[in-house]
């Protein structure tokens, strides 16, 4: 039973109120919404839309986004209740610690490490592709050996060497943004607000001008017939597409990691989570509809699908091409920033509980940021972004995110039964329907992911269990 000991909610709140040794509260509701948009709008629109349309869903990419959004809305409502009730920086890890016990909390914390580390690296690889293309337009060429992963994974062949040395642009952007995050949360949020404004304007320009170039014949058949393999078009393809692009929605989870730096978390956290989710879902659906209307879905398996759509319009929208790339570069930068912001705060909270070394909980005396874990996260993310391909990274992030959302939905059901007395500034509506629906949709999407992704998740979890039983269980402050 020691594995399932829970951390008292009043103790969690007491830890969060430590102003002298805690994190700096500098974020309002608007900053949290832009933080969410900064994390959500990025690789999902600028990179994965083309991949999912060409390989899984066809024009029904729109349905994939809606299915993913439905799961996110249900999970987001559960997150909003937790974030208002337990405004701590640990996100789903903290919520599980208060409801399901330490062992489950460790599993979800270890899963979140997978999610954020690989998310920042995934987006950095996408950023590299757009930056290399943008520089090429101005006759600045980075050698191929310095802008691609040295290894790749091909189904049926396994791991292969590509001949490249390292993806240097991806390493560069992670290192730059990690440095900014050490300096301060207010400065990081200010930069994110500017970046979000730029990329939303660019996306609205693409939607507005792209509407007149839609060829409705590109939407037929809307759901291409299944090839005979699960996940290759047909409805199973729509489901797999939803699971892969679920990666695009993890931003509102990142909002919850900043709860301890919100000025009024009980009011602002639900606004940040649900507001960013609603805005981004509308933009995703509109962009995917315009994209598949301009370009036949079979041609969209390219690193920069929106730029390709602009090319399809001929000279009419040629002026928009550099803006799309600038928007993509800005958009992906903000996603990397928010992912790199979220991961150190997971480390920070787990270290405060004794499940990770004490040094992980160190806060910079001047900047009031978790600088040790920010630097560590930056170093690991640089390595991953420099050597691994984007397809492996995105699927790992998706399955990690889906698992986190499933546990949060289940935790709401548990806490409503075990602690009905705890004040809830925001309450998830239609319980138990909403949590059950959220968990079910997330599990369905997990099942539709390739078996190789499950294997990598199980290996990661096995490593986590070894660390828990040989270190974390014995150093747990709750146990002491």
Structure report:
- By secondary structure, the chain is mainly α.
- The chain has a single domain, classed as Amino acid/polyamine transporter I (Up-down Bundle), CATH 1.20.1740.
- 67% of the residues lie in helices and 2% in strands.
- The chain contains 17 helices and 2 strands.
- It has a two-stranded antiparallel ribbon.
- α2 (29-40) packs across α8 (185-210), α6 (102-136) runs antiparallel to α13 and α6 packs antiparallel against α15.
- The relative contact order is 0.21.
Name some characteristics of this structure.
17 helices; Amino acid/polyamine transporter I; 67% helix; single chain; 480 residues
Write the layout of secondary structure elements.
Elements: H1 9-16, H2 29-40, H3 43-57, H4 61-85, H5 92-99, H6 102-136, E1 151-154, E2 158-161, H7 168-183, H8 185-210, H9 234-245, H10 251-257, H11 265-294, H12 305-312, H13 320-352, H14 371-387, H15 390-418, H16 433-447, H17 451-475
Antiparallel strand pairs: 1-2
Helix pairs in contact: 2-8, 2-10, 2-11, 2-13, 3-9, 3-11, 4-9, 4-11, 4-15, 4-16, 5-6, 5-15, 6-7, 6-13, 6-14, 6-15, 6-17, 7-13, 7-14, 8-11, 8-13, 9-16, 10-11, 10-13, 12-13, 13-14, 15-16, 15-17
